[in-house]
Design a protein that fits this description.
Elements (H helix, E strand, L loop, with lengths): L7 H11 L2 H8 L6 H19 L2 H7 L3 E2 L6 E2 L4 H10 L18 H10 L4 E3 L5 E3 H10 L9 H5 L2 H11 L5
Antiparallel strand pairs: 1-2, 3-4
Helix pairs in contact: 1-6, 1-7, 3-6, 6-7
Length: 174
């Protein structure tokens, strides 16, 4: 039985007390990032992690993914596909994406905080490295690019790719 409890107190401390996200977002004019909304995002991330993702840890460890070398197909453990569908349905894959592209237009640092809620022992950081939760929080606090970077898709993508991005946010997965 998984007894994971999301470290909400630590994450809120890092986000609100250390980097002063609420004040900072107000100064930057990020209308969606109000304290009540950010608290709700963190609470819902914790509920999703504790109720949907954490129970899959043992199944993932015991069964794991299976790669069929003949066909190249990869099969995930039972429950993973349904969990991903719930993840997409709840809008987690578009938390920081622009509203115009089907996202929720939240700051990247809030997205990093919500992701930190969802990682039991370690979390992929912005650069793809695996770090402990405390290292991930330090990274979140020290990276100015996590406040409000211009999404790469709006900066570098072709107009065709920009049209496809909303579909990516709604992709149901494998």
């Amino acid at each position: 039985m998984n007894s994971y409890v999301a470290p909400l107190r630590d994450i809120r401390f890092a986000l609100f007390d250390v980097i002063g996200a609420e004040t900072l977002y107000q100064k930057l004019g990020i209308a969606n990032a109000q304290r009540e909304i950010m608290d709700a995002v963190l609470d819902e991330a914790a509920k999703f992690t504790q109720g949907v993702l954490a129970p899959l840890s043992s199944v993932g460890d015991e069964i794991g993914c299976v790669h069929d070398k003949t066909t190249g197909a990869v099969t995930t453990p039972p429950g993973f596909k349904a969990a991903y569908a719930q993840f997409v349905e709840a809008g987690w894959n578009g938390l920081t994406a622009p509203e115009a592209m089907g996202g929720q237009d939240m700051p990247e640092s809030l997205g990093a905080a919500a992701a930190a809620v969802g990682h039991l022992n370690s979390a992929p950081d912005v650069d793809g490295a695996i770090r402990t939760r405390s290292q991930g929080l330090r990274s979140m606090m020290s990276s100015p690019s996590l406040i409000r970077p211009e999404p790469a898709v709006t900066r570098y993508a072709s107009s065709c790719s920009r049209c496809l991005w909303p579909r990516v946010l709604r992709w149901p997965g494998p």
